[in-house]
Amino acid sequence: MAKDSSKIWSAFSLVSALGAAALAKKAADATWKVTTGRKPPENPADPDVEIWEAVAWAVTSGVLVGLARMLAQRRAASYYARSTGHLPPELRRDGE
Description:
By secondary structure, the chain is an all-alpha fold. It contains 2 helices and no strands. It has one domain. The protein is elongated, with a radius of gyration of 18 Å. The mean pLDDT is about 85.
């Protein structure tokens, strides 16, 4: 049963993280357009993109995507715990 529970949690966690990352990417794109008046850089590693713009885009998109994934996984873990009565196998502390 624990192995099935682990597989269910892994799939649930992955889907929630991917969905949150996709939404955060859209939010980052929209935020960039509003604040700069331009589309975000397609490839920040391109030498034609100014360094300040590449760094700002990396920070903005990285923070938004990272936060969204973390919050989605926390919410998924909370839902899992409410549904099963225990934390997902990967989140349990020793002895729980």
